[in-house]
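User: Here's a protein and a ligand (magnesium ion). What would the complex look like?
Assistant: Let me lay out the input and then the predicted complex.
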Amino acid sequence: MKAVLNIAHRGASGYCPENTMAAFERCIELGATAIETDVQMTADGRLVLIHDESLQRTTGLPKLVKDVTGDELWELDAGSWFSPAFKGERVPTLEDLFELVKSRSLQVNLELKNGVVQYPGIEEAVIEATRRFGMSDRVILSSFNHYSLAHCKRLAPEIRTGILYMEGLYEPWEYAARFGASALHAYHYAVIPEWVSQAAARGMAYHPFTVNEPAEMRRLIQAGVAGIITDYPDRLAELLKTMED
Ligand code: G3P
Ligand code: MG
């Protein structure tokens, strides 16, 4: 069986506060071979890893990421909402994550959150950081904003891109190839085996999200997906071990 990428969704977000260094470190311990995280930009242009455009849910501050500076953001507690055990975890920067993974063999899936809020220049900034850390061959850029991915590909043909979508995209392998993407990050219920084969025949990798049940992981692995995005990388690692035996 071909190696399946074990992509930890916002780190080990089943066990730790999502998109924190605790979640990233834990997912490595649990067997992840890649980390998915969400990238946004502060008012002073810092690239930070957080899912929501608002800081309310994970830090309690009723402001948008785009309206605070990095220094204001570092003051916030992004761990307590999940559990008091994580009090003091802060919103990490993209550079924090690159520092963690650069000496390891992990891949990184950077989801650009530039749909609801627009972050002019985020593509340039993410590509600059990726190149500065020598991560170009280990990063996959993804987004629901496909104009943004097309822009990334023009700026950095050497960095892979993957299109995020929910359902019903007709022949997504043809569509994605039009702007140089090489992966399909599809909502997992919308993935059927026949499409996985058709995509693979055109060199297009499926990385469905967010798959937490082992039975669904098994279905997708048997269909031939190249990777799975999960909150529980330990479950996927365990399953992959049994399927290799
Ligand atoms: O990249 C897969 C997944 O993270 C996309 O949705 O909302 O969890 O960022 P979301
Ligand atoms: Mg995401």
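Summary: The first helix runs from residue 21 to 29.
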